Amino acid sequence: MRSMLMTLLALLAIVPAAADHKTPTLQSAVPGAGWSAVPVTGNSGERIYHRYCFECHGDGPDRPGTAALQVKYGGLEPARLDQRKDLNAPLVIYIVRHGISVMPSIRKTEISDADLKAIADYLAGKKD
C-alpha cells in the first residue's frame, strides 16, 4: 500500500511540470479552430474551410481527401478542393451532408448549415 501511495505522489509531482510546458494546440493555432491548425486570413468561408476541411483536403501525403481525389482525377483536375474552379455550392453541400467514396457524411452537429453554406460559397466562388 505504501509503495502504491509513493507511486501516486510521484505521478502527481510530474503532472504539474508537464502541464507547464506550452505545446501549441489546435485551439491556440487559430482562434476558434476546430480540426485544423492552419493559420489563415481571409473571408469567413475560407477560414471555416480551413477549420473543418483542410485536415483531409490540404497539401501533403497525409491528407486522405486530397489523395483520393488525386487518384480519381489522375491530375486532370486539381486534387485540392480550394484549387478547383468547377465546384458549385449545391454540389458541395450535398456531398458534405451525404458523403461520397471514402468521405463520410458530415452531420449538422459537426458542421452547422451556416458554416457549410460559407464553405460551399467559398469553394464555388473560386472561378478566377
Task: Describe the structure in your own words.
With 128 residues, the chain is mainly α. 18% of the residues are buried. The protein has a single domain, classed as Cytochrome c-like domain (Cytochrome Bc1 Complex, Chain D, domain 2, Orthogonal Bundle). Helix 3 crosses helix 7 and helix 6 crosses helix 7. The radius of gyration is 20 Å and the shape is globular. It starts with a helix and ends with a helix.
Short synopsis of the structure:
This protein has 128 residues and is an all-alpha fold. The chain has seven helices and no strands.
User: Which stretches are low in confidence, meaning pLDDT under 50 for 5 or more residues running?
Assistant: 8-35
Strand content: under 5%
CATH architecture: Orthogonal Bundle
Shape from CA axes?
A: globular
Characterize the biggest β-sheet.
none
Helix amount, in percent? 40-55%
Give the CATH level 1 class. Answer: Mainly Alpha
Which structural class matches the secondary elements? mainly alpha
Any idea how many domains?
A: 1
CATH superfamily: Cytochrome c-like domain
Taking the alpha carbons of the first and last residues, their distance comes to: 71 Å
Report the mean per-residue pLDDT as an integer. 77
Our count of helices gives: 7
What is the count of β-strands?
0
Q: Fill in the CATH topology.
A: Cytochrome Bc1 Complex, Chain D, domain 2
Order of helices and strands: HHHHHHH
| Rg, alpha carbons | 20 Å
